[in-house]
Amino acid sequence: MKCAIGLCLLCCFAVSEVEAGCTAAAVASPAGYGTISSTLVRTVAQNTSSTSAGLTCTPGGIALFSTAYFKATITSAQSGMLGPTGDVIAYSISAGTNGTHPITRGTAFDFASNGLLGTTAPSIIPLYFTTSINNVAAGIYTETLSVRWDWYYCTGLGALGVCLGSDSGVNKVSTLTVTMTVANDCTISAPVITFGNAPVISGFTPVSQTISVACTKGSAYTVGLSDGLHPVSVGGRRQMIFGTNFLAYDIFQSAGTTRWGNVGSARRASSTAEVNPGNGLGTGSQIFNYNAKIYTDQATPPAGAYTDSVVLDVGF
């Protein structure tokens, strides 16, 4: 190179180029809530997430260049996770944790303009899901979401900020399944049985009370009462104890004389409840009446505070 007069100048512009590209595909792993009791589903919002919403990019490019966008439009033939009895678990979708950056179904959401991607093309994009309060039957609930992706971004910039290359996609669809298993559950209210005080066996009066059970919507169940800690025999008289002394008593179904036990026909079916008989209601209680009495065909034991412990169980 020769310069005849003056200063010879040589100038070049640096160039930044990155091989990059994005693809949309079905998400292999579902966004799974796992197994949740119906009581929790009915009373507390549940959260889960998917590490991928179906778009995978080779890291690189300039994702926040002025014209860059990564848009997801989520749709489904359902309005939420559908269960075996037709119940639906509704939930919201967001691009950020704790419900931040909510996504509306059927409306394109741009992850780039919402500041969720940093400065380069994302390798994966997560989604977050939060249920509303739902009173539903037990079973497996699922929904398959269709995620339409549209994107554009620069894959390389010149020193003056000129876009040297780009990657784009239009109407590329991925699918993502959201699933939850709802387990049968109950809340139970059972008061203490107190016979009071009496100087002789004949002085004790029967006690009539109720047990309140609220079980999963649509569930058929039975309620059993154990034989206590000191039964005369299996399925025989229950006994309270004080020291080495015993006081025989029992618990009977409703106002009758049929013993309430925990095996076979001695259990009580949900269909026999005195209030709201039938399958579980989820949000409402079913009431079971009982009467308890101390047997009068026994000798009066020594004075003392006699106690026993009976286990109530619900079987589905």
UniProtKB/TrEMBL annotation:
Domain Spore coat protein U/FanG, chain residue ranges per copy: 17-147, 174-311
The entry's keywords: Signal
UniProt keyword annotation of Nucleotide-binding present: no
A Pfam family that the UniProt record links to this protein: SCPU
Signal peptide: 1-20
Keyword Signal: yes
Name of the featured protein: Spore coat U domain-containing protein
